[in-house]
Amino acid sequence: MSARDGSSSSANTYHDSRPICHHCPCILQVSGTDKNPGRKFYCCRYWKDSNAKCKFFVWVDEYKPKVWKESEDELKNKLIEMDESCRVARMEAERRKKAKNLLLEELISTKEDHARMETELRNLRNMFAVLDSRIKM
Ligand SMILES: [Zn+2]
Q1: How confident is the model at residue 2, as a pLDDT?
Q2: What is the CA(28)–ligand 1 centre distance, in A?
Q3: What distance in angstroms lies between residue 56's CA and the mean position of ligand 1's atoms?
Q4: pTM confidence score
Q5: Phi (first) and psi of residue 55, to 5 degrees
Q6: Nearest-angstrom CA–CA distance, 118 and 113
Q7: Which end of the chain is more exposed for a tag (fewer CB within 10 A), N or C?
């Protein structure tokens, strides 16, 4: 038997949508029989425990998780919904991009204004300095 003991294997060896029995998800095992060599199956994590008396067993390739049972229409509707939210998200991203560009333009013109005002201020200071020195003369 090549199957590993489920209690010692890490969580990532489990399938995400594996079946549940005994309140907790089943363990994934690999068959070592001549008839089904290497075929994966789920079974109760207490399969070794004779007190549990649980003989839950299902081949992975025959197991259909609940999500797969959803009707095609439901999936189509979900797809439409996702398309719609994608479209809305794209529009929102476009809107934010435009708003950002506007802010950038505003920032640039504010910086230009600031530079102009500093130049003016410098000129005024120079003028005052000249006036000051004339008054003292
Ligand atoms: Zn069980």
Answers
A1: 43
A2: 13
A3: 6
A4: 0.38
A5: -115, 30
A6: 9
A7: C
